[in-house]
Structure formats: C-alpha cells, structure tokens
Design goal:
It contains 32 helices and 27 strands. With 897 residues, the chain is of the alpha/beta class.
Length: 897
C-alpha cells in the first residue's frame, strides 16, 4: 500500500505521519516514537528487506493493515549506515516536545514532531557512518545557460573542508575520480547533457538532481555573502559565475538537509586549473593509489606510505595522493619540511608520540555545530587545543642557527593560535571521564559550578541531609525518638509518638512544627524548611541536568565562536602528522629527496617500487632489484622507452614504479631511489593490466582501446604515460598495427614521456626511424631449458617472449608445454622460410602425438581420425562426399594415428 493515500479516517498520529511523509516523499522517514524510530507503509517494507528486520503491522488505514518496522534509537547509527550504503536517503523525524507537554493540550493530543535532519550519502557527520581516514565529499556541478564552462564545488561537512574550481567537461571523470565523492548534486537541466550525465552515472556516486533555480548564480552569490558575512566574494579568488553557482547550491543543500543547522564550513578555497596533476579514473585504478583493484586498502600505495597516526593526518595524506601538486615551489616547500624532520629524528619521534591518537578536531567541531555532538566532543576539542600548544612550543628550536623550513614555521604559528582561554575553560569545566551524550549528565567537574554542586548534593546526598535534619530537630525539641520519614502520599514528614505530639502542638514549637496527621500511636508534622527541602530534592535531578545542559550549550557557543582558530590548529596538526610520517618512511626505507623542476627530464637512478619492495620485506624474500629510467635526459634524448622481454620479468612493475615515483615526488614525499630528477608531470596516464567492463557491454579489448584513446587524445609534452601490451587483445596483425600506430602517435604527436611495454618485437625497428625513442629489455638467463628472471632493465631489445617457459612455471601439463614448443618451432621455421602462412593442416599433429608418453595420449581423448569417423553418418554420404572423406583421412596420416 502506498503511504500517499488520503488522511480520512486516520488516527491523529497517523495523520501527522502522513503529513510529514508527504513533505519528504523522496526519503525513508524515521518517525520517532519513544525509544524507537518507526517506519510505515512502503518505507517499512523497503527498510525491512534492506535491513533484514521483522515487518509487523500497526492498525489499519484505508481498509488495510499498516506495515511497520522499527529500529532502536540507541542503535540507529548502524541502521542508517546500511540504508545509506544501499542508496537510500533518510529523513529523521524527532519528538520536539515531551509527552507531558502534549497532554496539557488534551488527552488525545499528539506529541509534536518535526524532521530535524535529512541523511544523504554526502551529508554524514557521525563517526560511525564515516571512515576516519577519508573525506566524504558532497560535490556540486553547475553550468550556466549559454556558457560551456562548468563550475565545480565540493565540501566535507564533517570537517568543513570547502573548495571550488573551474572545470572543463572533458576533465569531469578525472575530477570525480580524484574527489571520490559520496554524493553529487546538479541542476536537472543537465539531464539534456548526455555526455555529462553518462559520466556521472558511470562514476557510481549517489546522484541528486535539483531544480535549476537552486543553481541561480545571483541567488548563490547572496547565499555565500550571507553565510560567510563578507561584502564581496573577491577575497575567495576570482570565481567564475558557474563556480559561484555550484558553491551557493552546496550551501543551500547543506542547509536544507541539516534543517537550518549549518555546520562550520570554512571559506571556499579556489583551486585554479592546472595546479594539480590530472589523473583519470583508469590510471588511479591501474596504479592502485588509494585502493587495490579488488577495492581493498591493503596493498595500495596509500597503505604502503601512510604512517600518519591521526584521523586528520590520514585524510590529508589521501588528499595529497589524490591531488599531486604541479607548482615547483610548493613541492619543494614540502620536501624542505620532510628533509628537516628526517634530520631531527628525536624531535620527529616525540612529535609522532604526541600526535598518536590526537582527537579529530574537525569532526568534533562539525558535530557540535549541528547539534549532534556530545561531552566527548567537548573533551576532544579541549585536548586537541592543549596538544596543539604543546607541539607549537616543541617546534620552536632553541638553536638560532637551526631555523625550521617555512612550512614548519607556519604549522607552529597556526598551532599556537590564541583560543581566548577556551582550552583552559574546557579543562576546568569538564570531568576527566565524560559520557557520550549530554542528556546523561555527569560531565561537569565538581567545583566548576556552585549551583550545580548544590543540586547534585541534594540529588546524591538525600539520606545524609535528611539524617542531619532529623538530628537537629531531635536536639531542638529534646525528643530523641523523633524521626523524619517519607511515603508516597505525604512525602517527607516528622513523626513522634502520641506522648510527644502534644509538646509540638504547644508553644514555642507550634509556630515551627505544623500538624499533618494523627495516627493511632503517632502524630505527624512538617516544617516550612522540610517542605522546601522536599521540593528541592524532588527537582534536584532535573535541575542538575538542566544546569549541565546550560553549561554544555555555553561551551558549544564558545567553541563555535572560535571555529576558525580551531580549524587552523586542526589543519596544522594534520599537516605535521603527514610530514612526520613521510620523513619516518624516508629514513626507514632509504628514500631520497628528488630534484624537481620545470624541465622535461625524467631521470631515476636505481628506482624501486615502494609497494612491491615493502611486500618482499614483509615476506622475508630477496631484496627488490632497482632499475634506472632516463627519459628526455641530457645524455639520452629519448622521450619514449620501448620495453620488451618475457612475462614475469618485471616489465609492469618497472612501468608502475616510475609512475609512482613521479606521483610521490609531486605530493612532497621522498622517493624510493638512489637519485631522481623529475620534470613536472601535469597529467599521468596508465594503461596496465586487462579487465573487462561487462556492465557497460565492454570487452577486455574494448576497455583497452577506450583507455588508450583517452591517453592519445589528452596526453601532452609534460605528461607521463605508461602503456603495457597494447593490442594483445585482438588478432596478431590487428594488434601489431594498433600498437605500431600508437607508438608513432605518442612520439610524433603527443611528444610525451612514455614507457611502452610490448611483446610485439617488430616494434623495436621503429627506433631506427623515430627520433626520441629507445629500446630497453628485461634481462633474463637461460639455464638447462629453464629461464631465470633477473628483473634488470638493460639497453637493447628482447628477441623472445619465453611464454612457454612461463607456462611451465605456471604448472601447465607437461604434454601441453611440449606440444606448444613443437608448434612454436614450426611457426618460427615457417616464418624464417619466407613468411608463408601456416595452416592448421600443415601442423604434424599425429606425428607429434606418437612421440608423447602413452599416458598423455590416453588423457588427450579420441584422435582426430576417430572423431571424424564417429561424426560421419556413412549412409548419408554421396559418392563424391565419400571420396572426399577418404582424401581427408589420408591427409591425416591415419597409419600413425
């Protein structure tokens, strides 16, 4: 049953539900009922199936049962995570008044409820829904009418990280791969842009089309000016109208999903075009930068070089890897910082100890700013601010001759920012052990608030207070048997025996002790003091919690006011964490500082693959064999190396390691080599490995051609390209022709730096006529019929691929390997004899079979003659067909079959 039916006959509660659901028809509605979020109608059926929870029913609507399921409020995060990952959006509807308040309006009044948040893949803030080491970006894409340019904006509302950039339509796929967003919003008018929509759908992020009016650039500008309280957007850079439209739409969407509770979002940073290395999605996947091809972090480059010890540091390193710099000075500044930390080992070690487990200031700040934080987030802010101050002090060297590099100085300055005494205030106010939720109370330190201490004393020390009062009353009246008691009818009261009751009824005690009740054997009294105490005790717990919540709100307000300084300190700690981690791995694994410039050179001496080297060391295997790579150098002008040699010899590893060295250089890392001189790479392309894309109807060869086309259409003189086995997925001559033409195009048109690995040895002849091309090969050694891979790159070309030897190593049956050798020999002999095309009938199949072991023949199945005879229906043969059969059998040499 649809939940869009009319409200006729619905209960007041169900009428409320339907009204709220209509306003959020595109979302699953989490409808708060006490300690559960309930879902009804279609939402319940969908959630029950997705979450694997029981589907029940609650009452009837329009003559049918109402499907219902629910999740506990305390475990809602886990269920939200599963729903979001399944592609759903969830509107969280909370009770905004207590049931007691509703009853005051009438016994049948429904508790007021309202949607307080819409949870979408790009607007998550809870730690349980996020990866601590990855940003979760919400991306906005805008195109103005009559303008071909695109505007791109992205924000991580869990950290406040906000950026804008201009964008060419052809670079959209690469930017999506770089940002890896959780959600993309765009104007619904882009539905007419088939290529853009296709790119968005192929990427796989959650897509949210919105009315084009939300991307109006004029309205967007007003939103940005209002949100950041500035008079002009010029202070954020020279943003184009499309960029402003995208940025304003992001602010509007965040405000919509957070129902007015905007998190702390930093002013937008404009990334000018060409400031980062462009890496398309296929290259990122081939090089396994952040994840392996199987989707795992383990085994990726990030996993190999990530020695960060904090969540902020982990996110920052992933961002650096996704966006290598192209500005020489900015890269060198990072190299300076890494080098300084390498040379200051003791300081680096103490910094890493201090940073280990540092609180995630950004995400704590974001949760507090949208009303989803708790006392532990307050504590995290306090500890983080204190840690930043301590680290700032340690970075100021006492040696005046040992001046830290500029980046380290900037980090020290930001870490030491004045917080207006906020850190001290938090430390003085918060208890050492605080609860997760503010509503649980108990997070304000004893002594921090005198009124709160009094209420807590009343709440927690009722017995001792009453005992003290009883003792005083007994002493004042001289009635030693006087008791202060309590029951649900009278509350607190004073009880004495009948013989002493008359004393309290007489002066001077009658003015103080008020008669309440006379029993058979006792009389009961009260006092104004006792009545007041009773009132205060009954309200003490409520008042204590209310006071704590007031303290909490005040601290949140202070933190929000200091958001800019907190964000700066958080950024400083994250940057220091990354730089210290890169310095640690540089010293540990023998990485060196690369020289980087604007030349076309790409020279690596004794380069190593960081991931493979680490894996070998982890398994205790032989050391990695280093190799040189010299492209467009002074001594060797070759821009392209044609790499030949057998499989398993290390061609793909050699190609990948040089691409990774270029990338590591430009994120500011030292590199695994003896020396390196890297001319800036503006675009990195990789076509390595084979995979199909059946979901889009693409064969392995089609995928290979699409990726190759991307490279040939986009690579330029400053690009670095690595290509492996182009053309091997089709017929030999087709593949050779494609590979031949590709090499020519790279050399003569793209004029880029490239490593081109191939088994088409015919291509090596191109070096004689193509300027800027050289042959290198993987060195191997043959020993008693086996091949030994030395994993060394040497000048020259290979004349064999050793495929059969590799097949033997892989475990192919001996008979198959032997037969493959015989066929290869015949093919090579035929080619040497003039290139005559070898037909299947030319191969001496049965002669070869007779020389094999009996077991091999037995397992091979019926012979060709036997199969032909079995398949022939003799009675159906014409005389001519029978004669042709005899000739065919004769050609098969049946005497040897």
């Amino acid at each position: 049953m649809s939940d869009r039916g009319g409200d006729e006959g619905a209960t007041p509660m169900m009428a409320q539900y339907l009204d709220i659901k209509r306003a959020h028809s595109g979302c699953l509605l989490f409808y708060r009922m006490g300690d559960f979020y309930e879902l009804f109608f279609d939402d319940a059926q969908l959630a029950s199936k997705t979450l694997g929870i029981a589907l029940t029913k609650r009452g009837r609507h329009l003559g049918a049962d109402i499907p219902m399921c629910g999740v506990p409020v305390h475990a809602a995060g886990d269920y939200l995570q599963r729903l979001i990952r399944a592609g759903h959006r969830v509107a969280v509807c909370e009770q905004i008044e207590a049931p007691e308040e509703a009853k005051k309006r009438g016994s049948k009044s429904v508790v007021r409820r309202a949607v307080t948040r819409i949870v979408t893949p790009g607007t998550l803030t809870e730690d349980s829904l996020l990866d601590a080491d990855r940003h979760n970006y919400l991306v906005a894409l805008a195109r103005l009418r009559g303008d071909d340019s695109l505007g791109l904006a992205w924000v991580d509302i869990s950290t406040g990280d906000f950026h804008v950039a201009p964008l060419e339509a052809g670079d959209l796929a690469a930017e999506l791969a770089r940002l890896d967003p959780g959600e993309v919003i765009f104007p619904d008018t882009l539905d007419r842009e088939a290529s853009i929509i296709r790119t968005l759908k192929e990427y796989g992020a959650a897509l949210t089309p919105l009315p084009a009016s939300r991307f109006d650039s004029g309205m967007a500008e007003r939103r940005l000016l209002e949100h950041f309280a500035v008079a002009s957007l010029q202070m954020f850079g020279d943003m184009q109208r499309a960029e402003i439209a995208a940025a304003g739409a992001l602010i509007d969407y965040v405000k919509l999903t957070q129902v007015g509770n905007l998190p702390v979002i930093r002013p937008p940073h404009r990334a000018a075009g060409g400031t980062t290395m462009l890496i398309d999605a296929a290259t990122r996947a081939n090089l396994e930068l952040l994840r392996t091809t199987s989707g795992e972090r383990r085994g990726s480059l990030l996993d190999c070089i990530d020695l960060s010890v904090s969540g902020g540091g982990g996110r920052l390193l992933a961002s650096w890897l996704a966006s290598p710099l192209t500005d020489v000075k900015a890269i060198e500044a990072r190299h300076d910082a890494v080098g300084w930390l390498v040379s200051h080992g003791e300081l680096r070690a103490s910094l890493r100890r201090a940073l280990k487990g540092a609180p995630d200031l950004d995400r704590a700040l974001a949760r507090l700013s949208v009303g989803r934080g708790g006392p532990r987030d307050l504590g995290a802010i306090g500890r983080g601010l204190e840690l930043a101050c301590e680290i700032a002090d340690s970075l100021h060297s006492s040696d005046p001759l040992d001046t830290p590099p500029a980046i380290i100085g900037d980090i020290a300055r930001d870490a030491a920012r004045d917080d207006g005494g906020l850190a001290a205030r938090l430390a003085a106010t918060l208890d050492d052990d605080v609860p997760l939720n503010a509503r649980d109370g108990g997070f304000v330190r004893t002594g921090a608030n005198a009124t709160l201490d009094e209420q807590r004393s009343l709440r927690d020390q009722t017995r001792s207070i009453i005992a003290g009062l009883q003792t005083r009353y007994a002493n004042d009246t001289g009635i030693k048997s006087l008791k202060v008691r309590h029951n649900n009818m009278l509350g607190y009261f004073i009880e004495v025996t009948q013989q002493y009751g008359s004393i309290l009824l007489a002066q001077p005690f009658a003015a103080t002790y008020i008669h309440r009740q006379t029993m058979a054997n006792a009389m009961r009294f009260t006092t104004a003091e006792l009545a007041d105490l009773e009132s205060r005790i009954s309200l003490a717990a409520t008042r204590a919690l209310a006071l704590e919540l007031e303290v909490f709100d005040a601290l949140v307000a202070d933190i929000t006011a200091a958001a800019e300084d907190i964000a700066a300190r958080s950024a400083a700690l994250a940057q220091l964490d990354v730089l210290a981690g890169l310095a640690e791995i540089a010293e540990r694994d023998g990485y060196v500082r690369p020289h980087v410039d604007d030349s076309a050179e790409f020279i690596v001496e004794k380069g190593r693959h960081p991931v493979v080297e680490a894996a070998l060391a982890r398994r205790g295997e032989a050391a990695f064999v280093p190799n040189d790579c010299k492209l467009a150098g002074e001594e060797d002008k070759a821009r392209i190396w044609l790499v030949t040699g057998p499989n398993m010899a290390g061609k793909s590893t050699f190609l990948r390691q040089n691409a990774l060295i270029a990338l590591m250089t430009q994120i500011g890392s030292f590199v695994p080599a003896a020396a390196a001189r890297i001319g800036i790479v503006d675009r990195l392309f990789s076509r390595v490995g084979a995979a199909d894309d059946l979901a889009r109807g693409r064969s392995t060869f089609m995928v290979e051609m699409v990726e190759t086309a991307t490279i040939l259409n986009q690579a330029g003189p400053r690009s670095l390209v690595i290509l492996d086995e182009i053309g091997r997925g089709t017929a030999t001559f087709d593949g050779l022709s494609i590979a031949w033409a590709t090499v020519e195009h790279l050399c003569e048109v793209n004029r880029c730096r490239a490593l081109f690995a191939t088994h088409f040895h015919e291509l090596t002849a191109l070096t004689a006529r193509l300027e800027g091309m050289a042959n290198v090969a993987m060195k191997v050694r043959e020993w008693h019929g086996d091949v030994i891979f030395l994993h060394e790159v040497i000048p020259g070309s290979a004349d064999r691929s050793y495929g059969i030897q590799v097949a033997r190593l892989a475990g192919l049956p001996a008979a198959v390997v032997e037969r493959a050798g015989e066929v290869l020999h015949l093919l090579e002999k035929s080619e040497q004899g003039g290139g005559r095309k070898v037909l299947i009938d030319d191969l001496p199949l049965f002669a070869a079979m007779s020389s094999r072991p009996a077991s091999a023949c037995q397992t091979a199945g019926p012979s060709q003659v036997e199969r032909l005879i079995d398949e022939t229906i003799v009675d159906d043969l014409s005389p001519r067909e029978a004669l042709e059969l005899v000739y065919r059998l004769k050609a098969m040499r049946p005497s040897e079959a």
